[in-house]
Amino acid sequence: MMDVSGNLIGDNGTQYLANVLQNNATLTQLNLEGNPGSCCSAVSAGIQVRNDKTITKMDLHGKSNDDIGMKFLTDALINNETLTTLELRNNQIKDEGAKYLADLFKINRTLATLDLRGNQIGDQGAQYFIDALKTNTNLRYLNLETNKSRFCAAITKIHESLLWKHQPHLYLDCHGIGDSVIEYISLLIPASEEIRHIRLPSNKISDTGAQYLATAIKQSTTIIDLDLRSNDIGDEGAYHLADALKYNQTLSTLKLRGNKIGPIGKQYLEDVQQIRTMGHSFFFYFLKTIFNNFIQTPIEFDLSGAIKLLCPQDHHLKLCDYEQRKRNNTHQYPVSEYGCDTCLRGCRGLSWHCSCTSRGFDICETCSNRQN
């Protein structure tokens, strides 16, 4: 053991020690407590986990570790085959530190639990994790809540629903996650035996994201309903979804209201709906009883009314939650409740919203359904 605690060793001094001890294979404890360097605990932990092959869990929460500390720690874990749990919540890890951790996942297949709550990871850091997780499915528990990016909360929910708790639902309303995260979700859906209900409204999903989901739908044997309202899906995306529904046997509800699907895309969907709605006849139920694995469930689409959902300035409305509702395109609503401009009642939850006016414009989901 080397004890240099209670001194004035800063980041530079800590780095000198790390460099000197880089090839040391016998030191298992380096005590740097009480020094001002922000990466002291990470360097100590890195040396310990590199040389002590019995450690399976490491707790570094609340140690003020920053991005430099993550560089030391991840270098030590590249070839580690014993550590399965790493606790890093409430530190000072930002996007660069997230990149070091994400790069580690591409190599290390032993680490299964990582807690990064309460750090400062932004959109770019979240993207680093998504890219790494597409190739590493061994990391079963990943918690990124209470970071700077909403993507981090989304990644946590994805892991919770599809890999950790194996829940029957995945609800990601209004996270704006985009096609890259949708690609990751689509990779996990076919392997899930529990997932039934997926909600992805207002997530900036384009035709590319719709194609990713279509591939997952083709392979899924469990999913029942999929909510893709208020995204950016056009005719090409509608084509891919319609094609997938020719093969899928379980999906019965697909919500696409508020996308950019035109007459051509709508026809693609109506054609496959007609094929699958043959089930309203007695003959269908007779066949389904005998050939259950080969007869598809009738499907219901929510397409109607999208073009009618306009504000008084003729702007298309987007499905929004409390954090997305704004006034004059800048000021967030002061409370979570909003007033519906159709029924004039106070409402909570999602609304079809436009932020172009001084008070904002909202239609509740109940009133929007009446406008079909």
Automatic annotation (TrEMBL):
UniProt-listed GO biological process terms: nucleocytoplasmic transport
UniProt keyword Iron present: no
Superkingdom field: Eukaryota
Keywords noted in UniProt: GTPase activation, Leucine-rich repeat, Repeat
GO molecular function: GTPase activator activity; small GTPase binding
Entry GO terms, CC: cytosol; nucleus; perinuclear region of cytoplasm
Name of the protein this chain belongs to: Uncharacterized protein
